[in-house]
């Protein structure tokens, strides 16, 4: 299991890769910084691969900040 800081960094880097930029902070909303449905699918797929567990795309829609997504992913399955 990753630490919360490492998990937050992984989420942030995954967002940056999917968005094509890193001009956002951990409390910015995914869709407000250029996220689309397609990039949300990319985030879910990349996090699934990075974390070795299924990350459903709906989680990107319900936890729309790096902080919220990190907190959700830090919860036990």
TrEMBL record:
A Pfam family it matches: PP-binding
GO cellular component: cytoplasm
GO BP term, example: amino acid activation for nonribosomal peptide biosynthetic process
Superkingdom classification of source: Bacteria
Keywords linked to the UniProt accession: Phosphopantetheine, Phosphoprotein
Record protein name field: Phosphopantetheine binding protein
GO MF annotation: an example: phosphopantetheine binding
InterPro entries: ACP-like_sf (IPR036736), PKS_PP-bd (IPR020806), PP-bd_ACP (IPR009081)
Domain Carrier stretches: 2-77
SMART domains membership: PKS_PP (SM00823)
